[in-house]
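User: I'm preparing a small set of examples for a lab meeting where we compare how different chains pack in three dimensions. I only have the primary sequence for this one, and I'd like the structure in token form so I can line it up with the others. Please keep the answer compact; I'll paste it straight into my notes.
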Amino acid sequence: MGLFGFLKKEDGSAAGTVEFPLTLGSPAKGAFVPMAQIPDEVFSTGVLGVCCGVNPDEGKVFAPADGKVSQAADTGHAVGLEIAGLDLLLHVGVDTVEMAGDGFQIEVKAGQKVRKGDLLLTMDLRRIHDAGRPATVIMAVTNTDDFSAVESVASGAVQPGDDVLRVIKQ
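Assistant: Understood. Below is the structure token output for the 170-residue chain.
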């Protein structure tokens, strides 16, 4: 169940209209990675939807827009968000689920409302590296087919919140 065009405050009143096209901010500080260059075939081929990544410079992942936490992985490596009818998966690294939570800390819980820039999870980049895994922070619009376009709008170095993906509604 998405938020369908608006967010609600705790009292149920509208917190502000979300307008499309919606631009999602970078979830991390680092180097932008286009979808085709993500080091995981499930993501790079779009199996889970249009996505992008960031090779992180620090071990923090932030909310790319205002929304609601739809899921938080017990292993700490992934968070799902609902943003105005958009289903977003933030996934840290490649095959990091096999690390069984070692080096990850979820900072939010399912059902929690978040604002753009809120800390979602932390990760120990050294542990990920020592486990032989890329630490790429992947951001995928898992319901891409519900929109007329999802496109990258970034390149090079990005800061948390910098525009990285634009979502255009049908």
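A couple of notes for your slides: The two ends are 18 Å apart (CA to CA). The first strand starts at residue 6 and ends at 8.

User: Perfect, thanks.
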